[in-house]
Design brief:
Helices cover about 40% and strands about 20% of the residues. The protein contains 14 helices and 17 strands.
Amino acid sequence: MTTATAIAADAILGTYRRAPMELVRGAGVELFDADGKAYLDFVAGIAVNALGYGDAGLEQAMRDGMTSGMVHVSNLYRTSAGERLSEKLVESSFADRVFFCNSGAEANEGAFKIARRWARAQSPAKHEIIALRGAFHGRLFGTLAATDRPQYRMPFRPLAGGISIAERDLGELESVLNAETVAAVIVEPVQGEGGVRVVEHEFLRALRQLTTERNVLLIVDEIQCGYGRTGTFWAYEQAGITPDILTVAKPMAGGLPMGAVLMTQAVADAMQPGDHGTTFGGGPFVAGVALHVFDRLHDPAMLRHVTEQGAWMGAALRAMAERSLKIRAVRGVGYIWGIDVTDAAKDVVARALELGLLVCSAGEHTVRLLPPLVMGRADLERGLRLLEQAIG
């Protein structure tokens, strides 16, 4: 690394332990560093780059978005792209209304505010938000209080009040879901950062029944697992439930920053002009690109591809675990998988990097796989061969 490059890198706040190489371009499902080395990507920008790199349709959508000259106008005025995207999101889901923002943490913060606004209309005492053990909902003050990572939480105490974490146990939830004080429960159908833990469908159905009985909103966080990653467009579909609020973000705009909160009309009716806002959310350029991403990922052929190849990947990972004493467990669905290893996950990630494979961690001993949804069988096979070498 040259002195100038080192100074530039040092100017960025060190909130991430970054890999040493500098990535300079991408093509298909590979990234390339400044020395020309190729890396097969099983991270996809942390579940963002569902269409991989250099996608012709995505690039055309960006060019088309520039033709109007309106990258941004604010939400003081109507523009068509965001309105069209909101219609598609409503038609594809349980929802009646959509709020656009710029990230997953913003989406969950917005969902908490919307839930409390609805709850306070029921009763002045109704305000609590409950998350589940293993949850990760963001690093802002409200979402951090709902994130079950002590090392993330401790330096920033006191955290936002009225937000707590309960065990993933229906008996405990029955005792803590006080209809007079609890506004909402938030749950990830697949706990991505929490070790890629697929929440049982029976649990989700029972939780939905319990929240309905107690007049408590159910917020489903699909920021990492939504938009086709599990093989259905929305992960909640597989459990056969209907949430009151849903949050989504990562893949929405193909790498451009975008998030959204989807909600029923009953929830939306509680919100009044001025209760919440966003300068950039749903702007014409980003929303126009997101329209293309939606159509690609909502395509039944794409969803079949993820379902079929994800099932193959799960079988291959379980076979790998049978061959290796260094793999303790395999969990996942579709194109989101976690492998519990005996070594530190960061060491497996580092060895994979040397071999030309990008993977990431989801806890101290869990390696996480999040390939682009367009990745085909040959590249999946190649990636798993490299992963097995890295695990040792």
